[in-house]
Amino acid sequence: MTALPDTFMPEGPLRHQRITPLHHMEVVETGALRHLALRCAAVALLIAAIGLWLVPVIEGDAMMQLFKLACSAALAMAGVMLMAARPEAPGPEVRINPATREMTIIERDAQGHLRSEICHDIDTLGDIVLRDGLLSARCSAGQHLVTLPVTDPRIEDALKAVLAGRPD
Hints:
By secondary structure, this protein is α+β, with helices and mostly antiparallel strands. It has three helices and six strands. The strands form two sheets. A three-stranded antiparallel β-sheet has the order 1-2-3, with no helix packed on it. α1 (32-51) packs antiparallel against α2. The radius of gyration is 25 Å and the shape is rod-shaped.
């Protein structure tokens, strides 16, 4: 594989020195097993909050009653928060087809249903940069399209190869 010229990827700050843009989202896989585990933990916390009152205490021990009240309130609040937790929508999926030189950005909602699918020609994009493990793309009007982390070296090499063939 041939090395890319230095002008292809300008020098940038090191990963720990750069400022992550506000629109940058890490993709987190949320599956049915994780959702089930959260629900089971929520139910266990709610049962524990109620079950705490089944434990007998010495009559007249106000401090123990207050402690049980605080613990059961904390357990109940944690259980309700876990029960109300919704899976977050993952970041956009980006598909780059080197044969047709097209970049497709696919956005899905929290349930995995398709929200939008937009196809862009790589050659007509205003700016597409792969630097410091981030792929950033802007349309010809200068509007931000996507910023995604690229952690796999094989994917990074393939992206460099596609971007190297881009006419300027």
